[in-house]
């Protein structure tokens, strides 16, 4: 069965159940093509949801390279239905960009989640700087698409689905001729404006309930700084509550909004505060170290054939000079790229080798990205 037929069969068989379960409504994508689709990225289910907006024509997706390490049968199904273009996080995306242009020139509709990762706090991020030049090079039309409510259905830091309401809308349609007259920075600004979503600002107005008993579980993957004691890594989620050893206790309602006298109006406000506060802490103490105790953090080198090879295990840490796991130390000056995968994996490129750190438990690895961005005065960066 060819890809187009497989796509139509899957949409027809699975679409009604997915729409019903998720409370999903998706505005149809334009007929024909080829065109490039850029959509805000809120959950790992975005390709499935967006696919239902194009039930008659298959979409080719640019996706994380770690799909190559899935079980062979599942990998075969994904590539058969979605014709994926693999991109390695924490490494250059030049090869994926070239494959995208080639696919468009062959008449395929291609979707890029140009932020590069799903949203942690409900805000749409900046798109990758190479996106606009690739759009111009492709010579294809552009369709921007925005998903509303997806963040609350499956937050990046969460462990499972929450049933509520999700809708998708076409934000803009731009011809190749229009794009050819624009500068790359103009295209970047246009795309970022059209796909932007502030999930919590909308939720405060709409107050849509998303049913889940353990709605704060694994929130320590998002929140790492307590506003009361300024403890790093002291927060934990339990049931519907965010707790700290200092006595902080914040309860979340079914809209994922804090009840009562909480220090912040929503999780996005909390996350933005912790980012600024952590930056200030690093300014005051440039040599401040981060440390995770334990012997079960794993370091894998991903070999050219995408096979993982265990290279180290042990505790995790970083200071103003370097990042370490177990006995392996990587000076920040030699790390070219660093990115997060899902919620418990950190990927980076060092000395032309590609590595992944796997955490066995919910942990905010984002603070290691911030630590790298703020090296100490003695660093070679």
3D architecture notes:
- With 381 residues, the protein is of the alpha/beta class.
- The chain folds into three domains: 204 residues, Glycerol-3-phosphate (1)-acyltransferase (3-Layer(aba) Sandwich), CATH 3.40.1130.10; 66 residues, no CATH class; 84 residues, Pleckstrin-homology domain (PH domain)/Phosphotyrosine-binding domain (PTB) (PH-domain like, Roll), CATH 2.30.29.30.
- It has eleven helices and 17 strands.
- The strands form three sheets. The chain has a seven-stranded mixed sheet with strand order 1-7-6-2-5-3-4. A seven-stranded antiparallel sheet has the order 14-13-12-11-17-16-15, covered by helices on one side.
- Strand 13 and strand 14 form a beta hairpin.
- Helix 4 packs parallel to helix 5 and helix 5 crosses helix 8.
- The longest helix is centred in the N-terminal third of the chain and has 20 residues.
- The radius of gyration is 21 Å and the shape is globular.
- 40% of the residues are buried.
- The mean pLDDT is 89.
Q: How would you summarize this macromolecular structure in one to three sentences?
A:
This protein has 381 residues and is an alpha/beta fold.
Number of strands: 17
Largest sheet, order of strands side by side?
1-7-6-2-5-3-4
Q: What is the overall silhouette?
A: globular
Count of DSSP-assigned helices: 11
Based on helices, strands and strand pairing, what is the structural class? Answer: alpha/beta
Q: Please bin the fraction of helical residues.
A: 25-40%
CATH class of the largest domain: Alpha Beta
Give the biggest beta sheet: 7 strands, mixed
User: What low-confidence regions span 5 or more consecutive residues with pLDDT below 50?
Assistant: none
Annotated CATH topology of the largest domain: Glycerol-3-phosphate (1)-acyltransferase
**End-to-end separation:** 52 Å
* Sequence of secondary-structure elements: HEEHEHEHEHEHEHHHEEEHEEEEEEEH
CATH architectural arrangement of the largest domain: 3-Layer(aba) Sandwich
Rg (C-alpha, Å): 21 Å
Q: What's the CATH superfamily of the largest domain, by name?
A: Glycerol-3-phosphate (1)-acyltransferase
Question: Mean pLDDT, rounded to whole units?
Answer: 89
Name the beta content range: 25-35%
Count of the domains = 3
